[in-house]
Amino acid sequence: MPASAAPGSAPPGFQTMWRELAAVGRDAGSGGYRRYAWTPADTDCRAWFREQAAARGLDYETDRNGNQWAWLGDPAAGDAVVTGSHLDSVPDGGAFDGPLGVVSAFAAVDELRARGAVPGRPLAVVNFGDEEGARFGLACVGSRLTAGRIGAEDARRLRDADGVTLARAMERAGHDPDAIGADPERLARVGAFVELHVEQGRALDLGGHPVGVASAIWPHGRWRFDFRGQANHAGTTRLEDRHDPMLTYAGTVLAAREQARLAGALATFGKVAVEPGGVNAIASLVRGWLDSRAADEQTLAAVVAGIERAAREGGTRDGVAVEVVRESFTPEVEFAPVLRDRLAALLGTDAPVPVLPTGAGHDAGILADAVPTAMLFVRNPTGVSHSPAEFAAEDDCAAGVTALADVLEGLACR
Ligand SMILES: [Zn+2]
Fold this sequence. Notes:
The chain is of the alpha/beta class. The protein is built from 13 helices and 15 strands. Strands 1, 2, 3, 4, 5, 6, 13, 14 and 15 form a 9-stranded mixed β-sheet that branches. It has a 4-stranded antiparallel β-sheet with strand order 9-11-7-12, with helices on one face. The relative contact order is 0.16. Zinc ion binds at residues 86, 97-98, 131, 197, 362.
């Protein structure tokens, strides 16, 4: 890790922080990031966070769940304004998802100081651990534990692809797994949490806005569709004698697209498993996983019901048995209306700032039940996320920092 700043000198600016972090956990082959929870790359990101806290004279602490905090003012005073995001990544993720929120948070603290704004409430920058869930398969473990949305015992038992438990991985990285669990005292000190994040879509770009405020996170879920037919020889079985589950599956994929299009929702089959999986064999089982999201729960239920109906009709036609299992469901998260409106008012003094929903989950969504929570989005002209193509222009990043500083000043300094 490069040293951030000599004692007494000015803390590193946005671009310097960005460059330092850009080198950590980057795969030379793909150009993407592999910053998985409790790995050496994650440890390096965490060391960087700690250096940034020190360079600004902020009080650093790691909470019981491994989330990192950098405090300006006394946390015990309560009603804190907290900002930040996460530093871990999906496999071969982009540079912006997560780190933009953390780097912007430190830069916004610098901006407040440059303005001479003095917070009347404690202020903190936070890095939530294991947001992407890339290693242990569950997203937002750091914030989920803190909010009591997963039990300590269940979390400790999570395993990565090599069979290493979360408890063991934490231990290896120097964190006590026995300490993890719900942290209501900590959350009770937080008066507002604002997460800045790169937009994972093109709404801001299409509207010509550098920054927007989040209204809500769409409800979303995952469903497993099992199509059971009959394995047989691809070269000798007459078409009319087949019970081919691949055919029913294919029709269901097309139906998902159509249902989503008609409802203004999203439906995606992105993962499929085929048995026996022979080129010259009709499949006996096709298992497909549906991810679907919509603006409200009623629409989502209608979309999934429509897809299931199409699957069953196809199954009857093809002589294939269809079973549908809901594997997970996350209800709609509406961000605190008062805080959201306050942000829109603080940022909309010259021209109205767009207020838009998102289909992606965030720590802010996990915490929204426990503390007043809001999000800012920064324009991503590619609209691509979870890939090295994810992008935000330098000017837009600067606009994000200014907006975040305006929000922190408005919430904490007046
Ligand atoms: Zn993220």
